[in-house]
Fold each of these.
Amino acid sequence: MKLHQTYHAEIFKTATALNRAGAEFIITRAKEAIAEKGRFVMALSGGQTPKNIYALLADAAYRERIEWRKVFIFWGDERCVPLDDEQNNAYEATSILLSKVDIPLSNIHAIPVNLSPQEAARKYEQTIRDFFEDQPLQFDLVLLGLGKNGHTASLFPDTEVLTEKAAGIRAVYVAEENRYRVTMTAALINQARCIVFLVAGAEKSAITAQILSASGNGMDYPAQLIRQEDGELYWLMDRAAAALIHD
Ligand code: 6PG
């Protein structure tokens, strides 16, 4: 299955340029959403690539450019580790960014890690439903990374969650890590107004080319399950990650 869909690819010379562009992208989307509807609802990703962007956004040069009091933060996925573990996506984003900007605590919705993975997933889905009230579950922006095995969020190859058609949150056992994670389903991500993959580094070049230009299917390469429905899909990459893309 080729990724037969419209997506915008932007390739930056260096990882530094990618990080700056990623930060600017978030700022622009936040301004637009706040101007239009008074709030900006964003789902963050784990992994190293977005962390560099979070660090930039926390920097004095960027921090004041977003009206953080009107920003609402969720996560696309979480590793089931304690809240003060460096592997915890919410912990990392909070220490790098959220604790440094003027965002009310009540605007930050982390995935619970003090419950069983299944219960955490059920509760987080309810949190999202309550937040959107009677509106569609549509995030303004979902940030995603890409694993070398083609996973994104915690949609890992050959896991049951890949066949889930409902837009929601699910627990997933990741055999290679011998632990659970909690993740948005592809259907929930795909409802977003804007989805952005952030991919950096030569070690991602083979999988990036595979996903964007070669054959495969969503079971083998879960990132291929991410497709725009109502919104836009962006791939922001540095040159090293994009090196093997042919067309
Ligand atoms: C996570 C993620 C995951 C991540 C990729 C890429 O919590 O692990 O959300 O999908 O984005 O593994 O991570 P890197 O940017 O570190 O390569």
Amino acid sequence: MTDDTWGRVQSELQRTIGKDAFKTWIEPLELSAIENGVARFLVPTSFIGNWVSRNFGDDLLRIFGRNDAKVHRLDFNVRSTRAPGPAKSQQRADTSKSNLQAVVNEAANPAAAGGGNGGVPGSPLDARFTFDSFVVGKPNELAHAAARRVAEGGPVTFNPFFLYGGVGLGKTHLMHAIAWELSRRNPAAKVVYLSAEQFMYRFVQALRFKDMIGFKEIFRSVDVLMVDDVQFIAGKDSTQDEFFHTFNALVEQNKQIIISGDRSPSEMNDLDDRIKSRLQWGLVVDLHPTDYELRLGILQQKVENHREMYPDLRIADGVLEFLAHRISTNVRVLEGALTRLFAFASLVGREVTLDLAQDCLADILRASDRKVTIDEIIRKVADHYNLRLSDLLSARRTRTIARPRQVAMFLSKTLTSKSLPEIGRRFGGRDHTTVIHAVRKIEELKAHDNQIAEDVELLRRMLEA
Ligand code: ADP
Ligand code: MG
């Protein structure tokens, strides 16, 4: 590995991720060494390391591989503060002395997955995915309680434990949390966590290298087997078969099996019937789509977590509520939005306001738009207050009409991504300052006037349903 290689990796990466992203995130990295397949980087702040690892980790591994560098993991350490730099970043580096060990999933790199290192195969666990960092709310409380119970170890009562739910609702997070907790309570236990895809990959490798016996021995010697995203092997017949045998062998030895999927076993059409019925023997629980309260709770927790890194970060009132309302049920999307917002705010050094959020997250907001339209809002509000549409859009200013009109403008601003001038136009050609006034007025009233607060809440629920 020479400087030259790093140069080539950099230029290829720049082509992949674009100039801007490259400048912001990759340029600040300093490659300090590549040893035993681990590329070590020095970074100015742990935030940058985290960001690179999460967003560009896979790209980096792939490109290193293509340039003949045998790298299967990236490691980021915060550079000591000696480096000269702008006062701000200096300060930030000070507040994040602790080393960051960001582990990039080795599964992304075939070289690592193929390397027979003799140990029990599995994927590294994400240090952030613990029970402590998992926010509990109505939609996930049952799954969480069950996961806690399984994580206590003890006699195996639910076998298998099957956890299912839609994308980004916390299945992997809970699986890792269970694995951490089990290993903490019993460090000697062989807890193996891997994705179904990796299970298949290893199975195929074993076939190719005629080492089925080794494969069977390894998987049958574990104490706890965790397989994530089992839907992946549905329809892949020989893998399913092998999975079934491994499963049975472990159940017979009374070893705990924990499995996740994107839907319930009975809904997995391509899954072998024998496996389906086996999966239903144990405990099957699901993660429901998040609700507003859970999303807000998660956002608040993430903000607290970032507080250490950015003591100066200021977030205007209402921004988190806005995000919790507007971003879909997928927590991954929610987190991505927040991370981008923080990165952006810290780069430009400004308070995070509603406007900044709307600007910076326009694409995400658009994608998860619940497609509430201004027309719909006007209709529902008119209905609710027993007014005619024409009244709502007219120039009349009597209270009984003006107030509902303000409610409708407020809802248009908070539930759609339309701009203020656009909203003004749709309400009978009003000026954008009128819309601003309406939004402020309703915000103020909501705090003191229960009737208004209830009306707004009810309308919001109806519109978002
Ligand atoms: P899944 O495996 O169901 O697709 P993940 O477990 O990968 O979803 O979750 C996506 C992201 O959302 C992860 O970063 C995870 O930490 C986060 N997340 C999901 N649910 C919660 C929760 N209840 N509290 C905190 N973070 C959560
Ligand atoms: Mg997952």
